[in-house]
Amino acid sequence: MTEEIRLLAFSAALGFAHVMAASIAGLQQRGGLTWAAGNREGEGEVTGAAARLKRASANFFETFPLFAALVLAAAVTGRQGGAVAWGAELYFWARLLYLPIYGFGIPWIRTPVWGVAIVGIGFVFGGLFGWAGPGGL
Coiled coil located at which positions (predicted)? Predict the structure, then answer.
């Protein structure tokens, strides 16, 4: 398994962690297990950390399909390594940091960390088209 595919799998697991964190954090505010076992006619609004984790999860799933498609395209075309590997590393580690940073509501750090993940996607895209990446120019 290449490093990029390993990081893609870890990113998918991170997506599951986002869903679980948002679900668990909002459960009590929505009515606990009674609400969860019901038909959920109304989702119910959440506040505080639960709302932040819900937004973090939504944000993850806005970027993950792009990352996954590019990593898979790189794997199919044999473009692993270089910028693709750097990009996969940047994306995964930034997204891993993003969840607790957003969940705890740490100001001024969330946006730059999101930016690092976006730069990671850019590296994967560039590597797919032959850019060597950091140290390989």
Answer: none
